Amino acid sequence: MAKKKTRLSDFEPIVDKKTTLRDFEPNIDNCVVYPLIPKGLTGILAMPGHLKSWLIAQLVIDISLGKKYLQKYDTNTREVIYIDEDSPTDVYNSRLERCARYYGEDYNKLPITKMSKTGFDITKKTTRENLVDKVLQYKANSIEVLTVIDCLGSVCGGIDMNRPENATRVMGYLSEIGSYGTDIIITHHVSLKKEFKIDLPEPAKYVMGSTHIIGGFDNTIYAYKPDIIDRTVTYIRPVAKRSTIPVGIFGIELFEDLPDKITASLRQIDDMPSVPTEDELSCFKVMPKGNVEVTTWDIEKRLGGYLRPNDIRDCMITLVKEKVAIVHYYDKSSSAMTYSINPDLLKIKTVYVEALMKV
To answer: Are the C-beta atoms of 43 and 306 separated by less than 8 Å?
Structure first.
């Protein structure tokens, strides 16, 4: 069984056959966030609790201030219309306030039109007309505007988005609004019924609702939050339909001043913390506790043939590297070795060990 990828270095650059049309090369003028988010209709897609709303809040603040998004990617200052029918208003305001405070700014004084729990329903003509009126007012004054919506399922009036005709209609409404001169970024859920991972060959299959939804986006950003103790980190994977984004999978982390929760900042990080793969967890589970030594063959028998010897050996190399296990050599001329659990395991405080000790 192939080992799961848990480090950024494990991932190969992704080339999606459906997204290699190169109508343009990204630059600061044709991107909302250069080169991460080209202009057009962009979907931020993830399971619930995988930082979609924080990605949006940080984006709104960084663009309104002209700051680098995630402290990495260039933006142009513009007016932001921020619609949220998903989060409670106090949570909506708190995210914006804390992200702005990180820069020493008052979010109430920034060029943000805040629309939280206003009953926004994109299926209603008057709702769309009111939004277009706002966009046109800014455009009349030569002000660039970005519309941000959280989330798709909350602004569709409860219609069944699994039906292709409904999905097509809603994506058409979004395109119609965008045609009046606003780029749009909207969040949407990945299905909880399927095992979504960030490096899947065709992640679009895991998006909730009809495939007509994903087909309506010009760009998509997938997010996946691994189970890591005491840190809020997430993998990000950008995909564009009409251009090639020169950015592969990367990691971000939410930095908070706990327990006060006065400021917050979402930033790109150089590498994600290591966490055990399912194969490494399996090997660890069957190792006897104490000073008992086992061989690769012992572990293979205990696993019932679940892993091949070479896979087990790879897992054990990682367990030894992370100081979870100790290796013992039979003799100097033999490559065979035995392993035992590190007796000081409980004293080791790392993300990797803490994740192991949960099982």
So the answer is: no
